[in-house]
Amino acid sequence: MGLFPKESDPNSPYTANEELSPFQCGTSESPGTEYQKLSIVTGGLRYPVCNFENYDAVFRAAAVKTIEDANIDCSLTLPVAPDGQLTDVTRMALELTDDQGRTRVVKAVESASACGAADGFYLTSDTVELCPTTCATAENVDSGELDILAMCLPQACENPSIEICEDGIDNDCDGFADRRDIQCYN
Fold first, then answer.
1. For residues 64, 65, 67 and 69, what is the CA-based torsion angle, rounded to 10 degrees?
2. Do residues 3 and 23 make contact, with C-beta atoms less than 8 angstroms apart?
């Protein structure tokens, strides 16, 4: 955009509340009114290209906005267990750490309908879903962390066979998979 820098503060952007700027500086082909309209409609900021010595202000504003908008997700991908292991979803919990470093453990409930007003989470086939109360708590944390705590179990072996190396499964049911199994070194 060929906007002129603001006289009051050349490093500050034009906001969505400010009108289109028709001005064009010598380093641009046009005032970029279509781009300005797009920025206004999406609530974006508009920085003048005429002030190319101070582009760091653009990146600084983008970084601040990204940090302000970052939230803990209320829907998380179910973690994948290490090779040869299965995630024991019956013994899973979440650990929510708030901005003060306080930690609390959140336990699973059977389904979304079991959430009620209590803290909790439930599982779908491939996600961990926070109950509404837990989600609201997590979203209000400015710089916290949410960890999935899960136990892993050896992968069940239904039909023992010859060990197939590099498939992540203990095919011969001897408790060792792939490169940890002696059969993969013959």
1. 160
2. yes
CB atoms under 10 Å from CB of 84, counted, come to 20
What is this structure's pTM?
Answer: 0.48
Note the pLDDT tens digit of each residue in 74-113.
Answer: 888 887 777 767 777 788 899 988 888 888 899 999 999 9
Ranges of each domain in the chain:
1-70, 75-154, 157-186
The encoded tokens of residue 95 equal 């650990």
- Residue carrying the six token digits 């961990």: 128
pLDDT digits (tens, 9 = 90+) for 127-157: 899 999 998 888 887 777 888 888 777 666 6
Fold of 75-154: Elongation Factor Tu (Ef-tu); domain 3 (2.40.30)
Beta-carbon neighbour count of residue 168 at 10 Å? 14
Q: How many other C-beta atoms are found inside a 10 Å radius of the C-beta of residue 171?
A: 21
